[in-house]
Amino acid sequence: MKCKLLLPVTALSCLVWSGSARATLIAYDGFETYTSGANLSGNTGGTGWATNWSAIATGVNVVTAGTPLAYNAGAIQVNGGTRAVSVSALDTTDNVASRSFSAQSGTVYFSFLFRLAVGTSDNDFIQFSLNDNTLIANSGSIGDLSNVADANQFATRIGGLSGGTSVNSSTSVAQATTYLLVGKISKVSSTNYNRMELFINPTTTTETGVVATQNASAGISSISFFTVRVSNIEATDQYQFDELRIGTTWADVVPIPEPASWTALAGGLGLLAGLFRRRRA
Q1: Given this model, what pLDDT does residue 5 score?
Q2: pLDDT tens-digit map of 6-46
Q3: Residues 180, 113: contact at Cβ < 8 Å?
Q4: 244's torsion region: left (phi>0), alpha (psi -120 to 50) or beta?
Q5: 104-124 pLDDT tens trace
Q6: What is the DSSP letter of 23?
Q7: Residue 47: DSSP 8-state
Q8: DSSP 8-class letter at 9
Q9: Which among 32, 163, 181, 222 is most buried, taking Cβ atoms within 10 Å?
Q10: N-terminal to C-terminal alpha carbon distance within the chain
Q11: Are 99 and 224 in contact (CB under 8 A)?
């Protein structure tokens, strides 16, 4: 009896081990500990960051979203909670927020929930980038970066004065829709970063579904800053982002719902306990 029970228990033990063996995030921020209505600058929440948030004085604020940002598709579920960051009322072209993390020289992934909360104007532009400083030049980026006139499409870019030339996806940014965006910056036969890839709304724990790729030398060999830049955003527009993750693997930034995993584990242990009692009886 005891030997027969070992196999399922061992399987469940492996489930626990595999969940805890997942690689550790470089940095994370869910913005839940911040005061709603406050400017993002100076906030220190999250984990893994080297510095506080730096942001312009107006237009980048923590908000309580009327409809919390959340994404649930296939095996992937990301819940943004009650707080998010709002980028709004900015008729400017500028880097509006940044934060640093420990320098990385290998492949880096990052993800976040994204929503165009208010505004439908064409040619609006918001850029989420990784670089070795707070500048956009030579960075790798994803976001609403369309280089097609009168269109708002998700795109990716790398290198160059403004972070390179955009390569568009076929997905247009729809108002009041929450997306899970994933960026991957890597080195392909190079000592410098030279490839930026964009994934939109992944559904599996396996890396798949790239929708746009840009290949160009960024001229940098390490990255340590996350920066947000905007352009052509009218005063009435508002973007929101939440659940920012930076990691070295797909699994770091495209998480499976941990509570569901533990619920399944508890159910499995309960089933085994019941089976064991019946066999003893």
Answers
A1: 36
A2: 334 444 333 333 333 345 799 999 999 999 999 999 999 99
A3: yes
A4: beta
A5: 999 999 999 999 988 766 677
A6: P
A7: B
A8: H
A9: 163
A10: 12
A11: no
Residues 6+ apart with CB under 8 A from 281: none
Q: Which amino acid is at 34?
A: Y
CA nearest 30: which of 217, 279, 255? 255
Q: Where are the domains of the chain?
A: 23-253
The identity of residue 46, as a single letter, is G
**Cβ proximity of 151 and 127 under 8 Å:** no
Quick count: other Cβ atoms within 10 Å of Cβ 91? 13
157-to-161, 265, 280 alpha-carbon distances in Å: 11, 42, 63
Do residues 205 and 256 make contact, with C-beta atoms less than 8 angstroms apart?
yes
Spatial contact of 226 and 83, defined as CB atoms under 8 Å apart: no
> CA angle, 66 as apex, 61 and 68 as ends, to 5°?
85
The partner residues of 245 in beta bridges, in order of sequence, read 28, 111
DSSP 172: E
Give the angle 112-113-117 at the CA atoms, nearest 5°.
135
Could you tell me which CATH number the domain at 23-253 has? 2.60.120.560
Dist. CA 266–CA 134, nearest whole Å:
45
Task: List the structure tokens of 50.
Answer: 């080297």
What integer pLDDT is reported at residue 23 of this predicted model? 54
Among positive and negative, which fits the CA dihedral 19, 24, 25, 28? positive
* Residue segments in the chain with a per-residue pLDDT below the cut of 70: 1-23, 89-93, 120-122, 147-150, 258-281
